[in-house]
Design a protein that fits this description.
The protein is an alpha/beta fold and about 600 residues long. It is built from 25 helices and 20 strands. It has a six-stranded antiparallel β-sheet with strand order 5-4-9-8-7-6.
Length: about 600
């Protein structure tokens, strides 16, 4: 053995394989180490053997001489001494057996000591190796390592799943092209069609490549492909030559899952969070629960502030999609020119200002779950056509791409406008309306279920106290009366805001009418709402007048359309001419106005 190693000498550390293309085992390492030490100690003429703990002979000197001697007991004395000297365990992993009549027992003892020390170093490194590679197997990111000839040296479990490799030990040491060809998998670049994988360029030129997007296509299912983004890094030997490369792959599905987790795309509310014991609210909740159990799209009507998104989240959490993502988008807050990219996503460089990495759209983020389109009436007409197509085909196409992506998304849409009127005005597509409104729910405004106002107010006061850390306050009777008199144009949202202000602005433990009136905003609402309550007779007369006025407006509209022709006007209204003339007489006072 040389006294020292030239410090400028570099070792080839490329993993070695046996004739079966399998990485060397511990037994193989022990055998090679034993044979090396025997030659260095000049013991090859002695009767000496390396055995496993169970007695299997791994190597022997002189060649083919030791197996019979071991089993005949020639070396029993030495084996016994070795076992007695071992404090590690009763059954050692390896035994060095030699004739007890050898004249070189000192050299054999030195060999045993050197073998034990060197093999211990190997075992220690092997344990560290196991920890490292077990850790790589735990990652939900695909990692593989190639040698300088593009032979596969290592692949973690995620890569094996991604590339459909069933037995990774069987493919180690083989060229990656050969491996993929045998499995029936192709990695096809989406940027530029190539005859060879991009990793070949990395190994040839030694330059890293980032965000190289490929289609992973299976020969068995050519139409069932997935997209992945790959980062490839070369590594070098001591002379600066490329010695191999590592590739990190992220499938689009996993990128989307990571993005969902980062954005927290979950529904917070359930039907238990929706307050209200009035008949109208209980019936609305019951209807929503019934609809939630179906797979159909739902259109939610309601004024601003009634809790449309709370209902949408509750429907999601009550449906069989509750374990999927809940993605919400306010259609009114997205500029018309960006709505396509927000919902469908875009590829790298699809337009000026686009991110180099592209962007995942809301449809892809919501795949397997629910997409909530709030203020859907604000969608521009050009996009309504694309949305309709998506609802019909369950497919989207990113901006800048020609590839279609299948999506499984349930749509919940909400609006505070009359889509029927918008259809008549040419502002909303009729066919899209019926795609969205397979089922519909109308959430009543707060003024239509006043019996819930006090309980809502008290709940919001309690909630405000918990958030602010202030003592909880109560409403006196005058404050409760004011709550009931006010018509709440901002609905539940406005009531919550008023309670928050009252909780902060009132020092006393009891909130009075004056305290509450100061918290109402703007004051014009309060003044209008605080007008003295009218006698029942007056209220009935006003309602009757309103009905008569409506009839008069209907007659005027019919006459306007018919150009003053009373016969045509009667036909438009679906009444006889005789009835129409009686209506003219009855409502002439209002018609004159």
């Amino acid at each position: 053995m040389p006294d020292k190693i030239n410090p400028t000498t570099y070792f080839d550390i490329t993993p070695k394989y046996d004739k079966n293309n399998t990485l060397y085992t511990r037994d193989t390492i022990a055998k090679k180490l034993f044979e090396f030490l025997c030659r260095e100690q000049e013991l090859t003429s002695e009767e000496i053997s390396l055995c496993t703990g169970s007695g299997t002979v791994l190597s022997a000197f002189p060649a083919n001489s030791a197996e019979s001697s071991i089993h005949s007991g020639v070396s029993s004395d030495f084996i016994r001494r070795q076992k007695n000297a071992s404090h590690a365990q009763e059954k050692p992993d390896f035994i060095i057996a030699a004739s007890s009549h050898s004249s070189q027992m000192d050299e054999i003892s030195h060999l045993c000591k050197a073998f034990t020390e060197l093999l211990s170093l190997f075992v220690h490194n092997e344990v560290i190796h196991d920890w490292i590679f077990d850790g790589l197997d735990a990652l939900q990111t695909s990692i593989c390592i190639y040698d300088k000839n593009a032979n596969l040296i290592y692949a973690n479990l995620d890569f094996c799943s991604y590339a459909h490799i069933k037995d990774r030990d069987a493919v180690y040491g083989r060229h990656i092209d050969e491996v993929l060809s045998e499995i029936g998998i192709k990695f096809i670049s989406t940027k530029k069609k190539r005859k060879q994988m991009k990793i070949m360029d990395v190994l040839e030129y030694g330059n890293a490549v980032l965000d190289w997007e490929v289609e992973v296509v299976s020969a068995e299912k050519p139409n069932d492909y997935q997209l992945a983004s790959n980062d490839m890094y070369p590594f070098f030997d001591g002379n600066g030559n490329v010695n191999g490369a590592i590739e990190i792959s992220r499938s689009r599905h996993k990128q989307i899952a990571q993005l969902r987790n980062a954005l927290g795309l979950t529904a917070e509310y359930t039907f238990d969070d929706i307050l209200g014991e009035s008949r109208s609210m209980l019936e609305t909740k019951k209807l929503a629960m019934t609809f939630a159990a179906t797979p159909y799209n739902i259109l939610i009507y309601g004024e601003s502030g009634v809790g449309k998104e709370m209902f949408a989240q509750s429907i999601h959490n009550y449906s069989d999609r509750k374990n999927g993502p809940f993605v919400a988008i306010n259609c009114a807050s997205i500029p018309a020119e960006l709505i396509d990219s927000e919902l469908f996503g875009y590829e790298s460089g699809a337009f000026t200002g686009a991110s180099k990495k592209g962007q995942v759209g809301k449809f892809e983020l919501a795949n397997g779950g629910t997409l909530f389109l709030d203020e859907v009436a604000e969608l521009p007409l050009h996009f309504q056509t694309k949305l309709l197509r998506t609802l019909e085909t369950n497919q989207i196409t990113r901006i800048g791409s020609s590839k279609t992506i299948s999506v499984d998304v349930r749509i919940l849409a909400a609006t505070n406008q009359s889509l029927e009127k918008m259809i008549k005005d040419g502002l909303f597509r009729n066919d899209l309306y019926y795609r969205l409104m397979i089922l519909n729910i109308e959430i009543p405004p707060l003024r239509n279920h006043p019996e819930d106002i006090i309980s809502y107010g008290e709940f919001f006061l309690k909630q405000a106290a918990e958030k602010s850390g202030l003592a909880q306050k109560e409403l006196d009777e005058s404050a409760k009366a004011l709550l009931m008199q006010y018509d709440w144009p901002g609905n539940i949202r406005e009531l919550r805001n008023v309670m928050n202000r009252a909780n902060i602005c009132t020092d006393a433990p009891l909130i009075t009418r004056e305290n509450l009136q100061a918290s109402l905003y703007p004051e014009s609402y309060a003044l209008h709402a605080l007008a003295p309550e009218k006698p029942p007779e007056t209220r009935i007369r006003e309602k009757k007048d309103a009905v008569d006025r409506s009839h008069a407006e209907l007659i005027s509209e019919a006459l306007s359309i018919s150009g003053g022709n009373k016969a045509k006007a009667a036909k438009l209204l679906g009444v006889s001419r005789k009835t129409f003339y009686r209506m003219l007489e009855k409502y002439k006072a209002f018609l004159a106005k």
